């Protein structure tokens, strides 16, 4: 019997191998990440594992996928539940800069022990076709018709996912088939792309084209975790790999590591086949996939996050001077002001690792990659209101109705973990 956490580990490893074959620069990213982590461990043996053991950090990945309809999002939830991964949080990237016509959630383990075994997460975005800021009625109708004709997840895969979720795992033969089928769903399809249809959607949003301009889905990126992201950025650049312009998230400073810092190499021009208007097949390329890397810090409470967002708004460039003046400069101060989450065991305080995402950072990485080629979101129709239609408001309750199961509040998960750990001064 392969228990759910083992299924999740196998799935994450299989996706990593597959993505490495499809995007060789990702393998380079993983290699450099492991070298940086080993060097950091050697230089900082007493503190390197404060945010997780090196075995966890080495195995850790998050992925990103995109789907087009509520029905597809529902199937995603069924699939990931078979790996012990559940929807946490709501990210409305339509409100980001640049605006992206999706709402997202993160499927991940929610139990601390399961996170420690394997914390695989998949950031999953759903296209909002009814939002008139992006799609006028005729395009909405044609897009929804296109999406309704495709089926991303075969019945046998969803059946195995339900069995794994119900039984807490699968026997070895079923487990092998489940992981294999789930991995193959996210491979990049070789089916030719309708060039005119893809380009029409791309004029609205490059992300919309990536979702609704093709007949399948795929992994957009896989993200290893690194202990020193600034060193990683420098080493990747030294290898001649073009990185985006900066590291997203909090600055590198002398205070506590909080939330999430992330960067990526730029989206690569990958060869694809296209169907032209006359029915002929031609060769071309698309830029939709990239290699992201992340460094994780302490999970902040609502008040800590509010201060972080305020500083980001005041100074998007994230200067250390503003942080040194305005943000708690020690874990003691974070704790005293109730701005971060910790666990407490036998009088020892340990920070709770931030397991979730930052919408502005995600949008920043989208923007930086799209600027490298193809239509950028800032040029899209979605920046304006097309008028006369739905804006389509989403909250966690609305998303839960789509998915058919609870969308967990990340702050509540962190609070519960802190309370269950023992004594707390808060």
TrEMBL record:
Cofactor(s) required, per the database record: Fe(2+)
Recorded coiled-coil stretches: none
EC class of the enzyme, as a word: oxidoreductase
Pfam families linked to this entry: HGLS
Domain of life: Bacteria
EC code: 1.13.11.93
InterPro entries in alphabetical order: HGLS, YdcJ_bac-like
CDD domains cross-referenced by the UniProt entry: VOC_YdcJ_like
Originating species: Rhodococcus xishaensis
Keywords for this protein: Dioxygenase, Iron, Oxidoreductase
GO MF annotation, one: dioxygenase activity
Name the UniProt record assigns to this protein: 2-oxoadipate dioxygenase/decarboxylase
Family, per entry: Belongs to the 2-oxoadipate dioxygenase/decarboxylase family.
Gene3D superfamilies: Uncharacterised protein PF07063, DUF1338
Keyword Translocase included in the entry's annotation: no
Signal peptide positions on this chain: none
